[in-house]
Amino acid sequence: MAHEHTHNHGHHHGPTTLTTVNRALIIGALLNTVYVLVEFGAGFYYGSLALVADAGHNLSDVASLLLSLLAFRLAKARSTPTFTYGYRKSTVLASLTNGVLLMVTIGVIVWESLRRLNDPQPVMGEPVAWVAGVGILVNSVSALLFFRDKEHDLNVKGAYLHLMADALVSLGVVVSGLLMRYTGWFWLDAATGLVVAAVIFGSAWRLLADSVRLSLDGVPTDINLVEVATEIQGVNGVGDVHHVHVWAMSTTENALTAHLVLQPGLTHTEERTLKREIRHRLEHLNISHVTL
Known about the structure:
The chain is an alpha+beta fold. The chain has two domains: 18-215, Cation efflux protein transmembrane domain (Alpha-lytic protease prodomain-like), CATH 1.20.1510; 221-291, Cation efflux protein, cytoplasmic domain (Alpha-Beta Plaits). The protein has eight helices and four strands. Strands 1-4-3-2 form a four-stranded mixed sheet, covered by helices on one side. Helix 1 packs antiparallel against helix 4 (125-145) and helix 3 (90-118) runs antiparallel to helix 6.
């Protein structure tokens, strides 16, 4: 029988620094927050559902960036006698709240878009295109903040890809605005709103499903229990492994408990070496908090 409790809270896969990531997250969140307010205002002022939908999409960016920043901050928070794991799990609750709010936003956009398709309203296409064009700039600049570190941290890479995808969505709104300006096809605004809502739905559904799964201490989607057990059993000296449990401590940290049966005759030195090897293998499977 082996009893080992190990911690390793490093989830970075290269030279990404917390200060650099914090700065990028803060600047990106500020830029997108200002733009979301402007885009929502312009959308209501010009009566453009496409702009309102795109603003909702960009709002999810802000929530995602703030959630990532919160995760980095809470990773350093100390545990207490009441919250022995610290406050890391609050990132899962924040993610769940974000998913629910996005679903509500999608419902409102779809309802209004369908109503507008039956009764298209005149929309000033040129200012819509200009505002969406600013969105391309804001999302591109925000994405560039993460470009250098995107290959060293999964959260940073996710933020980069999300922002670049949003720049493409804004490009679609620009095209829609210009077409309305020169063709008078005002139904395009509602149609674009539906397309943007569909784009949001894809990411929102995954976010909501993953958040519910993690809230119920389900095995994170990036973890394969069979692979985990195989890695542990592949260590020389391990006879058997059972009662394997893996859950998320936060949106970025995973924990594991397992019961090991060691082969007879191992020395204390061999046991320590075995434990270090298991810990090392599990770190590569994105499991940083291990109890054996």
